Structure formats: C-alpha cells, structure tokens
Amino acid sequence: MIDIDDIDRSLLCELARDVTQSAGALGRQFGLSQPATWRRIKRLQDAGIIAGRKLDLDREKLGFGVTVFLGVKLATKGRISLEDFEHAVSAIPEVQTVEHVLGMYDYRLRVTARDIADFERVLRRRIMTLPGVGDVEANVLLSEERRPGPLT
Known about the structure:
By secondary structure, this protein is of the alpha+beta class. It has helices spanning 6-17, 23-30, 34-46, 82-90, 116-127, and strands spanning 66-74, 95-100, 107-113, 133-140.
C-alpha cells in the first residue's frame, strides 16, 4: 500500500474521466511539470492502483443494442467445477463479463446482443446448453449512468 495525496487523487479522478490526457496537460492542471506528473502516474501504475487503460466502445453504434444481465444458478454444484463453467461461459463472445457472486445466483453475466431475438438465440443455444446451468434470471438494461468512482 502506498500513500496517496490529494494530487494523486485528483490525477486519478482526471484519468478516470479521460484516460487519453497527456502527462503534460494533467501537469498544467495541477501545477506540476510533465516529468513530475509522469513519475506520479508511473508510481500509481507500479503500485497496481492504475491497473490498465480501458477502451470504452459504444456497443449500440456497433450494432449491439441490447444488454442483458443474467443471474445464473448452477444446478449441479459439485458435479461441475466452477472453473469449468467460467471457462465455458467466457468462450461465448456475447458474454462481456462473468462475475462469481454471493446470493441468490452463483454468477452474474453481462450479455450484449444485436436485439432481443439475437439475445434469445444466445441464451437458448449457448448459455442454456452449458453444463451445470440451472435457474436463469434475465434483466434487460434500460439505461446506464456512469459514475467516476469512490475518489470524488
């Protein structure tokens, strides 16, 4: 664990808002030189606080207008390993995230599809045919608000 000061927090907030900003531009915002800003960013990367950079695609403009969250309960715990299920479901291109959760369901999946008919095809032909799948609950995403995170 490293110490994070107010400037580090501000840098993280700005990078979370727009990761494409240069160290020079960020430095000007906070009264730092480009090398000093870069050293701070590098220190945060080396500490694992900045774990990577993410490309945020507009799925709808790419033709994937439907996002569905699936709660999946495995029917045969013990008969199929969790790793086997995770590996199999991760191989489905429409499945964007696989989260092992505690609660009513064993897994929460984020699935993107072109439309509801396409989602139904993915559900019936790919997800429901996976070994161990029991109960499934679908929630269609209506809208999404992005929040910057716990630093602000």
